[in-house]
Amino acid sequence: MFDEIEFDRIKRLPKYVFAEVNELKMAQRRAGHDVIDFSMGNPDGDTPEHIRQKLIESAQKTKTHGYSVSKGIPKLLLAISNWYKRRYNVDLDPQTQCVATMGSKEGYAHLAYAITNPGDVAVVPDPTYPIHSYAFILAGGNVVKFGLVFDEDYQVDEDKFFEDLEMVFKNNSPKPKYVVVNFPHNPTTATVTPQFYQRLVAMAKKERFYIISDIAYGDITFNGYKTPSIMEVEGALDVAVESFTLSKSYNMAGWRVGFFVGNTKLIGALQKIKSWLDYGMFTPIQVAATVALNGDQECVAQITQKYDHRQDVLIESFNRAGWPIRRNQASMFVWARIPKCVEHMGSLEFSKQLLTQAGVAVAPGIGFGEHGENYVRIALIENDKRIRQAARNIKKYLQQFKKDN
User: What is the pTM of this model?
Assistant: First the structure.
């Protein structure tokens, strides 16, 4: 009898493509094979010492071990507000325009759950980080996508973006209620100018939709590029929220600390749903996160320099291996078109073969959407020696296809 019970929302989810690669990766390791793993944006460095020490200090206090505050302790909310003031000269009310989340992924899932009515439409450029679209699907909404177009420098073609977005609003009924943007972009690393957000806010007010912006990789920028924030735009607080995470900037991925800021209605909805669903992060983690945001940011600069250097090493060594890759100006990833000699197999099969035959794990582009096909995402989470070894393995793997041609 129970076999007849269906779970409709789960049925709407496809198989997680990355799970397929992860299963292969674990099988390779169980068989004793070395795997050079670029498949996940999981920082390999230590969390800065001053942040760890604050965690230890706070955890040794008896009073910090009870239930915490679901929306974030007051000092953390103030630190979030101050971070925006220092970085973007934006004034935010800590209590009504800020909320701490258990990483940004949890925040997206719960925000969509709080604000999505059945049948509501969200627009998400493709390719995309999966939770940006599936948060709305899991909440009972619908998602409309269009292809993200960018140039050789990974700069978004902003005119094309707004032409496509206008067509979405022209052709869809009901009209979309939300538009999700993520720059620097995951997975493609594409970036935008401050003018992009000015145009987006103006369009949101005209077409009456909310904007959900993700700047998770905003700190990790190279060659003088600085990530803009939608919150810098006059009137953005009327129509937008924005998310950030400490996972990448401070090597705190496993700590699960993120936050959303912006429009009081959307932030209030997220605060309210979280009050029903959780008691917040462990208080010592929130205290340490406060120190991360308020403290010396030299650690962020050092982490960024490491990714900048690794990108140079990877591009140089992979190019010599016969896999030409272009340089980007932001994020901890490289978005690479797969070599022409293996394009026929597509990104998923190529990723599988690269893992089983070359011992190198990458994330297949198709896992981020149909416009990710023929690309892979490479995370800069291995050291120089491992990057160069991966290049040697890849060169040997690609030689078989060059012989066939």
Answer: 0.93
Q: How far, in Å, CA of 265 to CA of 283, rounded?
A: 26
Tens of pLDDT, residue by residue over 183-213, are: 999 999 999 999 999 999 999 999 999 999 9
387-392 — which CB contacts under 8 Å span 24+ positions?
387/36, 387/310, 387/313, 387/314, 387/317, 388/313, 388/317, 389/36, 390/36, 390/38, 390/317, 390/318, 390/358, 390/359, 390/360, 391/314, 391/317, 391/318, 391/320, 391/321, 391/323, 392/321
CA trace torsion 279, 285, 288, 293 (10° rounding): -60
Q: 169: closest CA among 136, 192, 146, 149?
A: 146
Which structural domains are found in the chain, ordered by start?
2-47+299-404 (3.90.1150.10), 66-294 (3.40.640.10)
pLDDT of the residue at 155:
93
